[in-house]
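Milestone 3.1: sequence recovery, worked example.
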């Protein structure tokens, strides 16, 4: 499973890329607003340092979405255009996908929405795990079901991107569910490294190493 960062914060992305584990980024209007720069500037900057970068459309009608999607796609070859799982969003996505633009269908909460996304030739479907959990549903179950449904249909090439991952456990669960990509905030990525036994092990190894560096008693 590929690991993406769900952020528009340049420093977080730079760090994840430097660590060698992050291969893409997902953004949304909330994350862009938090980063404090305009959409185009921020997305272009991110595209300069990492592979796939999802950037979201914000118009509502099909024709406007097509125009907006073409504009966003022209910013950089790494851009994947996000449309929402609505009739207008998907109709526009189909036109854009037909032009060779990669589409990420976002705000997906059901297997049916995932089937609609694959029907328009979407490159990515993004089921939102945490937001389903927030309303008392089982978000990871939806990821598992989408993966299973897609596997029954070999013609489907759409990748499953588990989104709205809120804790490190979600990341391993998404991988076990068969998701192609998991996207997460930086703090969740950091959490993936952590285990108390790793810290204790490092401490012991370092202490033993230091002992070998101390002057040895002279034998007579
Ligand atoms: C993904 O594309 C979304 O930006 C994201 O994962 C949403 O996460 P949230 O529900 O924690 O805001």
């Amino acid at each position: 499973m590929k690991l993406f960062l769900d952020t528009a914060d340049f420093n977080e992305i730079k760090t994840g890329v430097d660590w060698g584990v992050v291969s893409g980024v997902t953004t949304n209007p909330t994350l862009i607003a938090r980063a404090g720069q305009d959409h185009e500037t921020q997305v272009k900057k991110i595209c300069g340092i990492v592979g796939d970068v999802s950037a979201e459309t914000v118009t509502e009608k099909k024709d406007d979405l097509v125009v907006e999607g073409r504009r966003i796609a022209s910013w950089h070859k790494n851009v994947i255009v996000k449309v929402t799982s609505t009739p207008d969003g998907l109709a526009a996505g189909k036109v854009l996908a037909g032009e060779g633009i990669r589409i990420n269908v976002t705000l997906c909460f059901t297997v049916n929405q995932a089937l609609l996304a694959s029907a328009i030739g979407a490159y990515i479907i993004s089921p939102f795990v945490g937001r389903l959990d927030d309303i008392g549903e089982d978000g990871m179950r939806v990821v598992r079901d989408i993966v299973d449904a897609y596997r029954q249909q070999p013609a489907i090439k759409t990748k499953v991107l588990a989104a709205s991952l809120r804790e490190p456990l979600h990341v391993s669960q998404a991988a076990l569910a068969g998701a192609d990509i998991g996207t997460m905030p930086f703090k969740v990525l950091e959490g993936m490294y952590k285990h108390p036994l790793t810290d204790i092990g490092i401490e012991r190894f370092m202490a033993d190493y230091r002992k070998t560096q101390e002057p040895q008693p002279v034998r007579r």
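Residues 6, 26, 28, 106, 126, 128, 130-131, 163-164, 166, 183 surround erythose-4-phosphate (CB under 6 Å). The mean pLDDT is 96.
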